[in-house]
Amino acid sequence: MSWSGGKDSAFALWHLMNDTRFEVNRLHTTFGEESRRVGMHGIHESLAEQQAKSIGLPLDKIYYPASGDNKEYEKAINTYLDTLKAEGIETIAYGDIYLEDLKAYREQQLSKRGFNAIFPLWKKDTAQAARDFIAAGFQTLICAADADLITKKWLGKIFNLDFLENLPDQVDPCGENGEFHTFCYDGPLFKVPIKVSTREVLSKSYHFTTTEGKKIEKQFWFADLGY
């Protein structure tokens, strides 16, 4: 299972673990080689380790250079696929819900190596999926967010109905377009809850180049979570 530590990967894993057609025997997470954190989630690897321990599955950690391009990422993933294939594992699950281009990319990259990709949450209505996730008993914190769309006060707060009801109309209820990210610390997957707290909320700017060649700057909030 591709594991970000957030609500979508947790919900997808829960579906798989309750489906007799599948046996999930490990998680994997990609971290920045220098930061030891999960991409735009900003979660430190020590917290991902706590999640895996509570779930009861081994966590495989994949590192890639912070300054590297997508080729560096693909190189790291391909090395990992060699390890999986040697163990007889040829299927990877993802928590994606409706990003067609991302799904196609994952399937294309895996098929080159003879792997299959499955998407337990694919095409689910995100408003309903968000509510089903909460109703199932999962406890999750908002750990990162686009500062143009989500106000600072929500960082480090629980992903609940209050949060959903206060989202701007243009924000997907599951944050599928990268509007916000989450950290799951309790719920039906976990043997014991992860004791986590927000130490501070940080602001970081990123520079992007659009497909039209336009350069833009975006600000994101990050909750510095610790335990």
Automatic annotation (TrEMBL):
<dbReference type="Pfam" id="PF01902">
    <property type="entry name" value="Diphthami_syn_2"/>
</dbReference>
<feature type="domain" description="Diphthamide synthase">
    <location>
        <begin position="3"/>
        <end position="202"/>
    </location>
</feature>
<dbReference type="InterPro" id="IPR014729">
    <property type="entry name" value="Rossmann-like_a/b/a_fold"/>
</dbReference>
<protein>
    <submittedName>
        <fullName>MJ0570-related uncharacterized domain-containing protein</fullName>
    </submittedName>
</protein>
<dbReference type="InterPro" id="IPR002761">
    <property type="entry name" value="Diphthami_syn_dom"/>
</dbReference>
